[in-house]
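Let's practice the habit of predicting before peeking. Look at the sequence and jot down your guess about where helices and strands might fall. Then scroll down.
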Amino acid sequence: MLYLIGLGLCDEKDITVRGLEAVKGSQRVYLEAYTSQLLVSKERLEKYYGKEVIIADREMVESQSDDILAGAAEADVSFLVVGDPFGATTHTDLELRARKLGISVRTIHNASIMNAVGVCGLQLYRFGEAISLVFFTDTWKPDSFYSRVASNRKQGLHTLVLLDIKVKEPSLESLARGKPEYEPARFMSINTAVEQLLEIEELVGGGAYGPDTMCVGLARVGAENQTIVAGPMKQLVDMDFGAPLHTLVIAGELHPIEAEMLDLLQGAP
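Done guessing? Here is the structure:
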């Protein structure tokens, strides 16, 4: 059996009882470590679960999935995912590969930023299509997300902005040399996200949003020191949200209850 197990958002104790039972009964336990990350170390997980945890980076999951699935038809293998297992298409691909090999698959769900974002007071059914925002480079500033934000805003819907994470990413220079050398991990901040969003608005000029557009910045959702602040882009761009992970919401039209909640969160630490 292959278990796809959601770990929740914060630490080793966010796993469900059902998920923990599956982990303890597994022959091997993998931790997917590139679409998101918990706020605690692998060692903390191993101590709490009582099992060795094997880090599964992007290369392993996308190119060496046979190693993960080896023996899973005869013994249980757990694949741990921060948040919920189906927050990224890569995990659907892993399930498809397993089923093609005749391996049974069971999913154990957990909280994800896709639903936990409701902690900011914006109603989940008033969200439109979510977008991902990647780190810009000097030569690459993709703006494909812009039309989706514009569409959401036109309909009065909120936009969840998922911020880029770079873990074990090879540098372009090392790839050119044929010997991958990995750059330090990087986690996009709310500040960088707002800067990039405003840069694209200035380039496109479609008026989808601007410095005065109300947003909500969320940091370390689910942790005891989570931070949630509402304010216009021009305010959030200079605010210190602390350590990762960060998430941003571009607000649409506000229901009175939503507006009241954002009023409480404006400038709040």
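How did you do? The mean pLDDT is 92.
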